[in-house]
Amino acid sequence: MRFWDSSAIVPLVCAEVSSRTCRSWLRDDPVVLVWALASTEVISALARKRREGRLDRRRFTVAKQRLTKLEQAWNEVIRYDAARARARRLLEVHPLRAADALHLAAALVAIEERTAAIEFVTFDERLAEAAEKEGFRVLSA
């Protein structure tokens, strides 16, 4: 099982430099764990690409369909209160944005702080560094 943050999910649903790597990681371990709001963040990233002209209407539609398929198979951490409490601590000790702290907190909640239990997949440098400091083995570009 691997925890995937939204920065690593986007390359699974639309073509990016890291898409091949992400698909390989997913094939190697198809058990995906995510924060409950990950799909919202992915849609935000896709919509931004669409607005900026980096994703045409057809590819945007295909990406959303791929996301829906992934959502049907992944496991979501929905323990909001526990994740919020851990995120507050993480924000005090790591230079993270709130959404990134919630991803990391959700991973910690899901595995009850036993960070050796899963790998953390992200392409966000600050989040990768924080996850490593929290004890996760990080897969990143």
What level of helicity do the residues show?
55-70%
Overall geometry comes to globular
State the major sheet.
5 strands, parallel
**What portion of residues belong to β-strands?**
5-15%
Description:
60% of the residues lie in helices and 11% in strands. It is globular and about 40 Å long. The model has no long low-confidence stretch (mean pLDDT 96). Helix 1 crosses helix 3, helix 3 runs antiparallel to helix 4 and helix 5 crosses helix 6. Strands 3-2-1-4-5 form a five-stranded parallel beta sheet. With 141 residues, it is of the alpha/beta class. The chain has one domain: Rossmann fold, CATH 3.40.50.1010.
Q: How would you summarize what this structure contains?
A:
The chain has 141 residues and is an alpha/beta fold. Helices cover 60% and strands 11% of the residues.
Strand and helix layout:
Elements: E1 2-4, H1 6-13, H2 19-28, E2 32-35, H3 38-51, H4 57-73, E3 75-77, H5 80-93, H6 98-110, E4 119-121, H7 125-133, E5 137-139
Parallel strand pairs: 1-2, 1-4, 2-3, 4-5
Task: Spell out the key features of this protein.
single chain; 141 residues; alpha/beta; Rossmann fold; 5-stranded parallel sheet; 11% strand; globular
